[in-house]
Amino acid sequence: MKKYVKNFLKEWWYIFALLIFFALSQKFVFSNIKVDGPSMDPTLEHKERMIMLKFGEIKRFEIVVSKEPDDPKIKIIKRVIGLPGDKVTFDSDQLFVNGKKYDEPYLNKYKELWKKDKLQKTYKSNPIFQARAKRVDAFTVNENWDTKFTIKVPRDHYLLLGDNRLASKDSRAVGPIPSYDIQGRVKIAVWPLKRFGLVEGY
């Protein structure tokens, strides 16, 4: 019996080592995540599968995974717009961070569609989004529909916004997100295969 166990371990130890490595990697290095909902359209699609890295410095314009402030069991995917200590201002769809002007090329497609028909065709399956798009005077507004607003990001917090600004519940509604709620950085799209590739932050 001992000889059988010894031979078994000799032949299969690398499988156990691989399983242990994978389990530890899942806990500390990476994890898979599924996009739920339209808040990151068109950058990330509903039900798209992503790989999230659990380490590394969080940079502006990266896409990250965070706990939902109203329900920590739910994970949300948003883009980092403001870093700790930043003063973020939107003025008629123009982003300023600490007084510096930034472009947001990842918004171009939906901003153009908003100018064309206020996203009525894009949002045809959701009357709530249609009504919201009709009402606003810019693609990025705050909870009061203001086209100009400023958010100060506290220490150890991040300002997270969805790319689909008129359909995203994010830091404009719930406030900046504490760093301990951020789970990781979205880096690779894996499914569907046509979407496979690196997810660029900016």
Helices and strands in order, then pairings?
Blueprint (H helix, E strand, L loop, with lengths): L1 H27 L1 E5 L14 E5 L9 E6 L2 E12 L4 E5 L2 E4 L2 E3 L5 H10 L9 H9 L12 E5 L4 E5 L9 H4 L2 E2 L3 E10 L5 E2 L4
Antiparallel strand pairs: 1-2, 2-11, 3-4, 3-11, 4-9, 5-6, 5-8, 6-7, 9-10, 11-12
Describe the protein.
This protein is an alpha+beta fold and 202 residues long. The protein has a single domain (32-198), classed as Umud Fragment, subunit A (Ribbon). The protein is built from 4 helices and 12 strands; from the N terminus they run αβββββββααββαβββ. The protein has helices at residues 2-28, 108-117, 127-135, 171-174; strands spanning 30-34, 49-53, 63-68, 71-82, 87-91, 94-97, 100-102, 148-152, 157-161, 177-178, 182-191, 197-198. A hairpin with a 5-residue loop joins β11 and β12.
Write a concise keyword list for the protein shown above.
globular; four-stranded antiparallel sheet
Helix content: 10-25%
**Poorly predicted segments:** none
Mean pLDDT across every amino acid position: 84
Stated plainly, the CATH topology is called Umud Fragment, subunit A
Structural class: alpha+beta
**CATH H level, superfamily name:** Umud Fragment, subunit A
CATH class: Mainly Beta
User: Could you tell me the radius of gyration in angstroms?
Assistant: 21 Å
Helical region count? Answer: 4
- Order of helices and strands, N to C? HEEEEEEEHHEEHEEE
Total strand count, please?
12
Report, as a whole number of angstroms, the end-to-end distance: 59 Å
Overall body shape: globular
What does the main sheet amount to? 8 strands, antiparallel
